Amino acid sequence: MQSNYIEQLNPQQKAAVLYTDGPELVIAGAGSGKTRVLTYKIAYLLDQGVAPWQIMALTFTNKAAREMRERVELLLDAQDLGKLWMGTFHSIFARILRLNAEKIGFKSNYTIYDASDSVSAIKHIIKDLGYDDKVYKPSSIQARISNLKNAMVSPADYKRDKRWAQEDIEAKRPYLGVIYDAYCTQCRNSQALDFDDLLYYTNVLLRDNPDVRARYMQQFKYILVDEYQDTNFAQDLIIKQLAGDDTKICVVGDDAQSIYSFRGANIDNILNLQSIYPGLKIFKLEENYRSTQNILDVANSLIAANTHQYRKHIFTHNGAGKKVRVIRCASDYEESYIIANTIASLKRQAGYKWSDFAVLYRTNSQSRVIEKALNSGGLANDHGHMRSPIPYRIYGGLAFFQRKEVKDALCYFKMVINPDDEAIRRIINYPRRGIGDTTVEKIHRCAARKKVSMWEVITRPGFYGLDVNRGTLGKIASFKAKVDEIQQLDRAGKDAYETARGIIEKTGLLEILMGDKTPENISRQENLQELLNSVKEYVDNHLEETGNVATLAEYLTDAALATDQDNDQNADGDCVTLMTVHAAKGLEYRNVIISGVEDNRFPSYKNQDRLAQIEEERRLLYVAITRAKENCIMLYSDTVVMAGKPTPVAPSRFIMDIDPKLLLMSQTSFAASKAGSYDSYHSRWDRENEEGYKEHNAHQYQSHRASDSPTRAESQHLQAASPRRLTPVRQVQGRPTTGGGSAHTPDELHVGTVIKHARFGEGTVTNIDLTTDAKITVNFNALGQKLLLLKFAKFDIVG
DNA sequence: ATAGCGTCCGACCGG
DNA sequence: CGGACGCTAT
Ligand SMILES: Nc1ncnc2c1ncn2[C@@H]1O[C@H](COP(=O)(O)OP(=O)(O)OP(=O)(O)O)[C@@H](O)[C@H]1O
């Protein structure tokens, strides 16, 4: 434990950390240290003797959860943090549901439908019911059902309270209730929960089981929640249900950063806290530690345009810094090269690392063109040589676990744990075994009629009266035999890795890909291998930190919720970060580049009708700007390629909200050469030639060809993908893995021994504790003190 | 039943 | 442009 960590807080932060007499709310602007208060508070509580398992700490995004773990880890050297309930809402409550599944009528081996499973299930239901899938667009229906669940409206509630049905009648989809009902029935028959169910059923569990609720209220003495302004009804309700008389809640948030209304987030949740917890103590933080004065001024100038906001006083002692720049480009193609060049030249001039840069955008699809530019390293230099590629890493988008070959393997894993309908549909005919759509539909219809899962029907086709011919029946029987065979692999005592490896072997998934040696197939093989490595690593971590063997079911839960695990090989190295603004919430970078600041993206073309929508979009840009510590650069283009066609777009109206004196406007010469159609904006440009943007040769950008560099899909298959480490929910994450190591006995070690741990690097043993389980305390060079359970820790003895 | 090909459509944000 | 879907020939 760092001894004087409390002194690293300002007086307001300190007061918020030390306050333990009752419920508290920290409401403050961006970069004022709200998350810092949360992390220090966790450290302080543990220091005061609160047990780790009595503390629940919740975040929204996976990335924020990882960052918080890292921050706490740095503060708390040798603490045993394995039992801290820290993670995203979904991961923490998935765990609680796993422990209490039977109370909500599910089995504890339930599986999780990810977003694509949900949409696919809904699509089939719409087809079954004979509705037009143009009117009932599966993805919109899924979004609507998600909203209903987030508002705690069950299919029965939907029938009871006509208000909801009225909305759908107005939206011209009167049969939504029927689809909703059928979908829930199918999920239940399949023993599957979707993402929203994790929150919905947690509420049901706590509501209908006073004993369970009492137990958790008793257990969790402290509940800490980051970004509370983005909680939806279901999340807010869970917190209210868990907060007993002895529970101290500590939530932090900023109404100016509420950007998740599309999934039901409601600012009122944070503003109404006071009426729910009469003793609520409110702390305000006013000093921004993150950004330069210039960046802060721009952000404040922008957000001042919002009418619905609670004005906060915020100041900084940081220097003025560089002005925020706005750059007009001719096309998104040119823009992406300007981004690559700007990053490369800033790095060169100011000695930044790649990881000091983040490129933020509104939608994931914008990453593609930027990736191309980064891969090419930006402009060709004067001698025509291409620069070396700029390493980058993408969060969000198509995650590792969503890739076809990986998902197929995961579905086989599911077959062992709980063969849900969506998993069956995916793999019943992969590898090909002659069971086509017709048969699958028959099985599905039969299952729906008898209100059982498809697997039930497959197990006893005669009993359920499945109407298929003899040959097909034989094929179904041999499919069942195959699944039975792999189910035998998941015997007690076997860890997830052994089971997973067995499944891949028995199903021959790797062999199928050996068939032809296309680069795609080689890459797919490597991905499967990488999946196994990920399971192995998960099992090792779990063992080391909790002393328990990880089950395949636990691994599957985490894999389903890891929607942002990317697939870049140099993921752990020094690289630029690419992500959406939503994903960047709560994070910070020395240099932030915001791409596509145009009027169809900021605000999104979908959110331009109502004032509330516009204001949320403005907050989104506010969040983006306030991620920056030192440099903030916004870019927009005159034309953007949409659906393959260059389309003219206007600059974001939000740029006009910002006091022009605060901005440095410039444009590329190519953009300038095309006399603009947006004169009100053009008149704001500085004459000065900011960093030579006019110098760039226009013709370099004129071609917009796909073949200049490999597409993302191409380059993905040229190199092996790999997921980031998956770590158990209740476990604090270590550093990137390098090397192996083996287990050791106490007599091989003494105080002063230098060891090299697989994940924590080199360190010196400072204490050996043989009382119960042999534990050693090691002072790691990079991470400080850590407590290791000797029987599980893997390391090499260096000296 | 399925591979392969042409056509059509449409494009948000996260767990 | 790229993914999803449907038609056709085997
Ligand atoms: N008292 C302090 N002294 C020094 N640095 C601080 C202090 N408080 C916060 N910081 C630093 O300021 C930065 C922003 O802090 P933090 O991320 O906790 O803010 P936040 O209020 O959660 O921001 P946001 O709302 O944008 O997520 C961090 O780099 C943090 O380390």
Automatic annotation (TrEMBL):
<comment type="similarity">
    <text>Belongs to the helicase family. UvrD subfamily.</text>
</comment>
<keyword id="KW-0413">Isomerase</keyword>
<feature type="domain" description="UvrD-like helicase C-terminal">
    <location>
        <begin position="293"/>
        <end position="586"/>
    </location>
</feature>
<keyword id="KW-0547">Nucleotide-binding</keyword>
<keyword id="KW-0238">DNA-binding</keyword>
<feature type="binding site">
    <location>
        <begin position="28"/>
        <end position="35"/>
    </location>
    <ligand>
        <name>ATP</name>
    </ligand>
</feature>
<dbReference type="InterPro" id="IPR014017">
    <property type="entry name" value="DNA_helicase_UvrD-like_C"/>
</dbReference>
<dbReference type="Pfam" id="PF00580">
    <property type="entry name" value="UvrD-helicase"/>
</dbReference>
<feature type="compositionally biased region" description="Polar residues">
    <location>
        <begin position="699"/>
        <end position="719"/>
    </location>
</feature>
<dbReference type="GO" id="GO:0033202">
    <property type="term" value="C:DNA helicase complex"/>
</dbReference>
<dbReference type="InterPro" id="IPR013986">
    <property type="entry name" value="DExx_box_DNA_helicase_dom_sf"/>
</dbReference>
<dbReference type="InterPro" id="IPR027417">
    <property type="entry name" value="P-loop_NTPase"/>
</dbReference>
<keyword id="KW-0378">Hydrolase</keyword>
<dbReference type="GO" id="GO:0003677">
    <property type="term" value="F:DNA binding"/>
</dbReference>
<protein>
    <recommendedName>
        <fullName>DNA 3'-5' helicase</fullName>
        <ecNumber>5.6.2.4</ecNumber>
    </recommendedName>
</protein>
<keyword id="KW-0347">Helicase</keyword>
<dbReference type="GO" id="GO:0000725">
    <property type="term" value="P:recombinational repair"/>
</dbReference>
<dbReference type="Pfam" id="PF13361">
    <property type="entry name" value="UvrD_C"/>
</dbReference>
<dbReference type="InterPro" id="IPR014016">
    <property type="entry name" value="UvrD-like_ATP-bd"/>
</dbReference>
<keyword id="KW-0067">ATP-binding</keyword>
<dbReference type="GO" id="GO:0043138">
    <property type="term" value="F:3'-5' DNA helicase activity"/>
</dbReference>
<feature type="region of interest" description="Disordered">
    <location>
        <begin position="692"/>
        <end position="747"/>
    </location>
</feature>
<dbReference type="GO" id="GO:0016787">
    <property type="term" value="F:hydrolase activity"/>
</dbReference>
<feature type="domain" description="UvrD-like helicase ATP-binding">
    <location>
        <begin position="7"/>
        <end position="292"/>
    </location>
</feature>
<dbReference type="GO" id="GO:0005524">
    <property type="term" value="F:ATP binding"/>
</dbReference>
<dbReference type="InterPro" id="IPR000212">
    <property type="entry name" value="DNA_helicase_UvrD/REP"/>
</dbReference>
<dbReference type="GO" id="GO:0005829">
    <property type="term" value="C:cytosol"/>
</dbReference>
